[in-house]
Amino acid sequence: MTDRPAPRRLRYQDVMAMIERLIADEQLGPGDLLPSRAELAATAGVSLITVRRALNELQQDGRVHSHQGVGTFVARPRIVSAPGRAGGLLGTLAEEHGAHEILTRVLDVTRGRPSQTVAHALQLEPGAEVWRIRRLRVIDGRPMIVEQAVIPVALAPDLNARTAEAADSLYRLLARRYGLEDDYEEQFLEVVAPSTEERRLLDLGRGDQVVRLRGVSFDTRSRPFDCFQQVYPASEVVFSISGQTARHVFRGTDLRDWSVAPLDAAGPAGSDPGATRARSRREPGSKSDRGAQHTRRRPTAGL
Predict the structure, then answer these.
(1) Under CATH, what is the fold of the domain 79-264+284-297?
(2) Total-model pTM
(3) Residue 28: helix, strand or coil by DSSP?
(4) Checking CA distances to 137, which of 112, 201, 203, 238 falls within 20 to 30 Å?
């Protein structure tokens, strides 16, 4: 039996390797401008179509980022979020990447009445009230995650008085103060266009999409205690997920109305707002497919 020859590498793959070497040799960092497509094509001796394919593949891999009419830049490293791993959001970020500068800003704490979807998921009686806590996570100076937690007032009566503690790890506070230990969760992920507020908070450009993760957390007594939502820039985050058997608390079609109406607001709860030398130029400061993935996970939200 003769050994099979190694598969021949395609031209666009050679161009990808050339660009990777260029980035390393020139010590280019995030935001540095790469040579133009025409310059890359001339250096590699290939067509513009081949260069375009190579850059598209590198962009899919998160290595470069293109701005139409401006050029292609070295991309910032993606943040890895591990929803299926124990230890909370802050812990998983540290485990994946080492030290991160993570700042949390509490946007608001509101007492209100949930939408029918949220009330059903939390198994609430009609008229029951909830706390809605919204926070923004800034990682290494970048706004990265808009978080929302919806928790029954009956389970955490004075939660609004503990805003400072919630700025760190809400779930540690819930476990320590109210005995609500996260045991398992149901989650849905979808890629969608951000709402106007999400676009502003995450400093997104036109056409940028987000990954919206929604779910329900259950304590050790199988009581639902939080309808949570996390919104990430789709191009900035990689998810590491371990699949487990799901209990199917709700269907993906049940996710449309995830809102809470403040007690002083009129009307019912509404719906969500919907090797050539590189140049020294930097990336401009400014910074569909729709799919859903359903997974059950052990406690890690770190909300």
Answers:
(1) Chorismate lyase (3.40.1410)
(2) 0.66
(3) coil
(4) 112
